[in-house]
Amino acid sequence: MKRVLVAAVLLASFAASAVQAEPPVFKDKKYFGPIAQNGFSFGVGFLDGADFDYLFEHLDAWANARNGYDNWELLSISPYAHVRYERQLTPNHYFKSVASLSHISSSSIGDYFAPFPDTTLYLTFERDFAVYLFAVDVGFSYCFIAPAPQRFSPYTGAGFSAVVPMVRLDTKSFDSGKPFSNPAENVSQNSLQAGLHFEFGMNYYLTNRYALGLEGKYQMSQSKFDIHGGNFDLKYAGFVLTLNLTYFL
Fold first, then answer.
1. Are 83 and 41 in contact (CB under 8 A)?
2. What is the SS3 assignment for 183?
3. Residue 4 Cα to chain centre, angstroms
4. Which ranges in the chain belong to alpha helices (H)?
5. For a Cys-Cys bond, which of 18, 60, 114, 203 suits 213, CB 3.0-4.6 Å?
6. pTM given for the model
7. Nearest CA to 204 among 216, 195, 214, 194?
8. From 3.30.390.10, 3.40.630.10, 2.40.160.20, 2.60.40.1120, which CATH number describes the 38-248 domain?
9. CA neighbor of 126 nearest in space, from 69, 205, 81, 75
10. Domain ranges of the chain
11. d(C-alpha 42, C-alpha 100), whole Å
12. Smallest Cα–Cα separation from 58: which of 185, 223, 228, 235?
């Protein structure tokens, strides 16, 4: 009986030592510092620098050729907003994915003489031109100072963009003050374009969960707009400035 008991104890000891020697089933989670690895941020700001002059000059020349004019307002600063996911890869390196939307618009007034087979009409018009610019950015950034609570951390980064410009030209035409149907002057076009972006900014980490930041980004992309048998460049290269609030999971 004693031999059986001793054998059982030896077998249990051997089994326990074998289990301890086995590697852990789950790997230890890598953790780089006091700030969590994953974060989501929301930013609002403005976009400045878009250039539609090539198209606007054509529309004015088109009206001039018909003894009229088409005067466009200068493009103003455009509202911009984004939602971003970021993941810390090392203490100073981050992967970032951003979805953004901005609204660029301008308007004009003008007139021209429209020839028809049996008559010529003097038409006045009002044009509204708008671009809803949706973009998805993917890139990496480098923090010059590793993030930590109650610390400023400047950073810079770059990446690629997939840009979807949704372009709308709406023209209201009038004949002697009465609405005149002119569908050829109303155009809607969507496309998918590639782009690049460069960013630089500063975050202040309020706690290990929240951070406030100011970011500047330069984006480069463009698309084409077809009207009157021509193809005209719309350039969205410009500077974006946003104020960001980040929450770390």
1. yes
2. helix
3. 74
4. 2-21, 53-64
5. 203
6. 0.83
7. 214
8. 2.40.160.20
9. 69
10. 38-248
11. 10
12. 228
